[in-house]
TrEMBL record:
Keyword entries, A-Z: Hydrolase
InterPro entries cross-referenced by the UniProt entry: dGTP_triP_hydro_central_sf, dGTP_triphosphohydrolase_C, dGTPase, dGTPase-like, HD/PDEase_dom, HD_domain, PHydrolase_assoc_dom
Name of this protein: DNTP triphosphohydrolase
Keyword Hydrolase assigned: yes
GO terms assigned for molecular function: dGTPase activity
Species of provenance: Algoriphagus kandeliae
Top-level taxon of the source organism: Bacteria
Example GO biological process: dGTP catabolic process
Residue stretches making up the HD/PDEase domain: 58-258
Any Pfam family the entry gives: HD_assoc
């Protein structure tokens, strides 16, 4: 793979012959701005990061997390861009700047969680489990092709994100480079063999009906295949992944300490191996715990950015050949320290009572919504003798543009189910909870 093509300014959804504008903003800054002003990004303000529906201002939502990941991503991308422009003189002929390369990573990092449903990873599992285990979900299996059924039984936020970013309805028309940097898992859900040694095959990055969209992207950027069914990662995707890894490792720990789930002393002990000589206990004196946490977090992220850029420079050629396929944070000097943070976070933060209660509630809410809407759709198109007044009322709660025509027993319902999942996955936590209460009769409008 060649950097000249990988960093092309072409834009998804534009007609052949499209000429990028050379205005005050670069094409990748345009990507960033379009994402910031989009409805799917705005909805992240009320989606769970770790702690549910937080009332405390210091606890992160998906929105604040995404902004921080984007900030770290910009730093990583700009530093990597400076390295690439120095190493490859031909890149200068494209008039690309290091800031533009940083802009690609920043924009892709901004969207990295845009496909996540309400209630975080519990929401992903809830959607998957509805089709895997629930009788009303499994009823759809006989109407679908095997690869479509695998999609439904394995909801993946990354694939949902790609679907949203290329959707004509959202109208983003991002650059191919940003879309590729976003795609950490360049494969569909249904493959005959997964190479467990390749990080990029751990999950999947697009649903089967977005295959042609992804092929369009890889053809334009010259991204090659690693097998008959999978592709290599765009090298900048490694930086997007690293930005996310850095932020959730350090900032989830900070949130856990602030909420009293992890002691300040434990937090300091976990960060000291990363900081090394930069750690000065005297600077922690005569300051509040919050101030100390903020200072330690900033110093730690700075060290991890530097280590990650150095690792990128070391493995960049191998990435372009498709040989390197690991998380950069697994090969940096602080990898063991990050692993120790991860192990403690799992034990004391991610499995804390408040988080587990949120996950349990998320399962109930999303399963309940899928049950009532899925059943109403099934009755309407596949069991009309059971289509009731209650079903009619439920379907009136769907968005006005929801496609309720053209379906029937002889029509493959996969696109219909994708639209239903789009509707539910796009909800905020509070909206999903309130709608669940209403359709289940737990609460009534105006009461």
């Amino acid at each position: 793979m060649k950097w000249e093509r990988l960093l092309s300014r072409g834009r998804f959804g534009e007609k052949p012959g499209f000429i990028p504008t050379q205005a005050a903003r670069s094409e990748f800054e345009v990507d960033y701005d379009r994402i910031i002003f989009s409805a799917p990004f705005r909805n992240l303000q009320d989606k769970t990061q770790v702690f549910p529906l937080p009332e405390q201002a210091f606890v992160h939502t998906r929105l604040t997390h995404s902004l921080e990941v984007s900030s770290v991503g910009r730093s990583l991308g700009k530093a990597a861009g400076e390295y690439l422009l120095e190493k490859y003189p031909n890149l200068k002929k494209t008039e690309l700047s290091a800031s533009e390369i940083g802009g690609i990573v920043a924009a892709a990092a901004l969207t990295h969680d845009i496909g996540n449903p309400p209630f975080g990873h519990a929401g992903e599992e809830a959607i998957s489990d509805f089709f895997k285990f629930h009788a009303k979900g499994r009823a759809w299996e006989k109407h679908l092709r095997p690869e479509q059924w695998v999609d439904l039984c394995n909801f993946e936020g990354n694939a949902q994100g790609f679907r949203m970013l290329v959707s004509k309805q959202n109208g983003l028309k991002l650059t191919y480079a940003t879309l590729a940097a976003f795609t950490k898992y360049p494969r569909p859900s249904f493959i005959s063999h997964r190479d467990i040694a390749r990080r990029s095959q751990k999950k999947f990055g697009f649903f089967i009906n977005q295959l042609s969209d992804f092929e369009q992207l890889t053809d334009f950027l010259g991204i090659e295949k690693s097998s008959e069914e999978c592709w290599f990662r765009h090298p900048l995707a490694f930086l997007v992944e690293a930005a996310d890894d850095i932020c959730y490792s350090i900032i989830d720990l900070e949130d856990g300490c602030t909420m009293g789930l992890v002691s300040f002393e434990e937090t300091v002990a976990l960060l000291k191996p990363i900081l090394g000589d930069k750690f000065n206990p005297k600077k922690l004196e005569n300051r509040t715990q919050s101030q100390n946490l903020g200072a330690l977090r900033a110093l730690t992220i700075g060290v991890l950015i530097q280590e990650t850029v150095e690792a990128f420079a070391q493995y960049e050629e191998s990435m372009c050949k498709g040989h390197f396929d690991k998380a950069l944070t697994d090969v940096i000097p602080s990898a063991k320290a990050l692993q120790a943070i991860s192990e403690l976070s799992i034990r004391k933060i991610y499995r804390s009572q408040v988080v587990l209660e949120k996950e349990a509630a998320g399962f109930q809410v999303l399963e309940g919504l899928l049950e009532v809407f899925g059943q109403a759709l099934y009755h309407k198109f596949y069991a009309p003798e059971l289509f009731s007044g209650q079903d009619k009322s439920i379907l009136r709660l769907l968005p006005e543009d929801f496609p309720l025509k053209g379906w029937g027993a002889e029509v493959n319902p996969y696109p219909l189910l994708r639209q239903l999942i789009d509707f539910i996955a796009g909800m905020t936590d509070k909206y999903a909870l309130n709608l669940y209460r209403r359709v289940k009769g737990i609460s009534f409008p105006g009461v």
